[in-house]
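Input (structure):
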């Protein structure tokens, strides 16, 4: 199939469906998209008679779906006969338009699943000396990371091993517009709790949905994402709301409470815009952080920044399947209750609430900023200071943000 997309086409409707017929007895569906990438970007996905079958955005130009295996980002399963659709999102179309070609083929024999070597197991840095609070424990993690199931370069096991080496207790795997990674999370045992997530991605804003909630349809309005997450018992956060060409611009009638106030894209933390945005978004924002890790040398490493969650030390998920120090459900419940803090990294200066007090670690000479605007210089590497209602933060003398806590 050959065609041409114009800028007018993009403005009229950004998501296009190109239908094709899958004959009975098909064992594999293969789709390849070709166009001049130097001129624009066309995102790629797939829908089948049964609904969503995968998404890879601009990270891939082809995919294969079989009964037992699919390209990362796509869901394996019987290639049922009937009308399928190649999803094309006209992400960047130049004024002169963009020619494209779709090659669609079918096979009787499914291709073998590629076998990837397992990364070696490394050591986890020792955990920090942080007291429990009323039977709850502080856990270090990251709520935003990607794998080969979207536009990341690491397998799930490689990402989990990297998080382990960084000293994290949990990591949310949030590949773009897909849940193809979810079935594999429970099979990876690296001493890190892997939380199922998906980054619902459009060119006017991104949001993470956490939990086993099923696929969230990014083609629908943002209000439907919130309703989907709530209906299925998950959580939704607004991602990097001031993040360049992926800043939050979508209309939404009910603003989620959880927000990725601190992302690795906050390059100069003397710039107070993310904090000002959070204050304007709603008065009870639950701040979390995310590295948005894709590959080495891009964005921050997992845990840059680190989100700390005060959660139950349940030791296991309700389902009994879990491969880390804390259950994913317990982590999400801690976030839902607003028990969060954010730091520059797993070993950076830390500000945690312990009831009516603040535990301040490795922050000698930094400034504690309270919600009422009063400030106090921190003395010593471990201090207990009085807390008041509302969010607190640590700053340098130049107003650079070093740590946040609820």
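Output (sequence):
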């Amino acid at each position: 199939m050959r065609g041409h997309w114009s800028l007018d086409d993009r403005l009229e409707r950004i998501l296009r469906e190109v239908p094709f017929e899958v004959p009975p007895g098909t064992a594999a569906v293969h789709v390849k998209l070709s166009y001049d990438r130097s001129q624009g970007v066309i995102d790629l996905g797939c829908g089948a008679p049964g609904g969503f079958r995968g998404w890879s955005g601009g990270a891939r130009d082809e995919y294969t779906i079989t009964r037992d295996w699919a390209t990362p980002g796509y869901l394996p399963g019987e290639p049922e006969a009937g009308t399928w659709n190649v999803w094309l999102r006209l992400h960047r179309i130049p004024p002169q338009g963009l020619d494209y070609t779709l090659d669609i083929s079918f096979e009787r024999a499914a291709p073998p699943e590629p076998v990837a070597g397992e990364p070696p197991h490394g050591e986890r840095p020792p955990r920090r000396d942080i007291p429990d609070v009323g039977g709850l424990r502080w856990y270090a993690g990251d709520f935003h990371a990607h794998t080969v199931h979207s536009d990341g370069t690491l397998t799930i096991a490689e990402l989990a091993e990297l998080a382990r080496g960084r000293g994290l207790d949990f990591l949310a795997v949030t590949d773009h517009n897909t849940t193809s990674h979810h079935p594999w999370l429970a099979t990876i045992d690296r001493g890190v709790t892997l939380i199922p997530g998906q980054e619902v991605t459009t060119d006017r804003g991104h949001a993470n949905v956490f939990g086993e909630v099923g696929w969230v349809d990014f083609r629908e309005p943002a209000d439907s994402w919130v309703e989907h997450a709530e209906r299925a018992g998950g959580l939704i956060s607004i991602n990097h709301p001031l993040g360049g060409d992926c800043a939050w611009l979508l209309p939404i009638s009910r603003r989620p409470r959880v927000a990725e106030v601190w992302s690795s894209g906050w390059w100069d933390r003397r710039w107070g815009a993310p904090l000002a945005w959070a204050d304007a978004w709603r008065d009870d924002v639950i701040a979390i952080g995310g590295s948005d890790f894709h590959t080495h040398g891009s964005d921050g490493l997992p845990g840059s920044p680190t989100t700390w969650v005060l959660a139950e030390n349940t030791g296991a998920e309700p389902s009994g399947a879990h491969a880390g120090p804390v259950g994913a459900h317990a982590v999400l419940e801690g976030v839902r209750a607003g028990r969060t803090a954010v730091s520059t990294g797993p070993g950076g200066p830390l500000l945690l609430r312990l009831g009516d007090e603040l535990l301040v670690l490795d922050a000698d000479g930094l400034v504690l900023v309270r919600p009422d605007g009063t400030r106090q210089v921190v003395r010593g590497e471990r201090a207990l200071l009085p807390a008041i209602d509302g969010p607190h933060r640590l700053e340098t003398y130049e107003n650079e943000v070093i740590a946040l806590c609820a």
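Notes: The longest helix spans residues 156-165. The radius of gyration is 22 Å.
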